[in-house]
Structure formats: structure tokens, C-alpha cells
Amino acid sequence: xxxxxxxxxxxxxxxxxxxxxxxxxxxxxxxxxxxxxxxxxxxxxxxxxxxxxxxxxxxxxxxxxxxxxxxxxxxxxxxxxxxxxxxxxxxxxxxxxxxxxxxxxxxxxxxxxxxxxxxxxxxxxxxxxxxx
Length: 132
Prior knowledge:
Order of helices and strands: HHHHHHH
Number of helices: 7
Helix content: 55-70%
Low-confidence stretches: none
Distance between the termini: 35 Å
CATH topology: Serine Threonine Protein Phosphatase 5, Tetratricopeptide repeat
Structural class: mainly alpha
Radius of gyration: 17 Å
């Protein structure tokens, strides 16, 4: 259960803190000369994921990752989502970590992530939300 929560948190963090457009741009910049093949493979895997064909989507994301020489955070995130759908949580968590590691190595992605939330004074029962 703890792994599922960790995986869920990881997927939420990746989904909302790393801009999807930045991931696509980074993947294209990092992809070798066969960028068209990567784009085609990734898009096919993404469509399979949307249709809940998790096993075939996973294979597609793995091929896309190979085409990007294992440097595509986007492909690893897709693999994590497919593994989550297959309920292989430990492997999904590892794929999430790989996606995070690759995203942190890219200054363009780092520049687009959301800043940390500063220490806030949360309202008490006597204060209103408007006063925060």
C-alpha cells in the first residue's frame, strides 16, 4: 500500500511539476538522428496507453526509450504509467525515479518546474481563508 501511495505521489508530481511540453521538447533535443522514428513510436505507445492496452504500451515506450538512447524522461514516465496500469508497482516506481533523474539533468525542464511552496501560515478556526 505504501508503494502505491509513493507511486501515486510520484506520478502526480511528474504530471504537474514537469511541463509536458518541455518533456516533449527535451526528448526531441536528446533523441538521436531518428527523431521521426522516436516520435512515431512514442505517439503509438501513448495511444495504446489511452486505450488501456498497458502491455503493448509498455513495449512501445521501451522501444521509444531505446531510440532515444535511454535519455527520454517522457518515455520513462510513459513506462511508469503503463506499469501502474499493469499493477507492477515496484517497477513503476523505478521507472518514475528514472524519469525524475533524467528530468533533473535537463536545465530546460528544471527551469519550467514549479517552485517549492514557502512556509505558509495556515488559517485556524478563527481566521478566514481570505486573510492568508
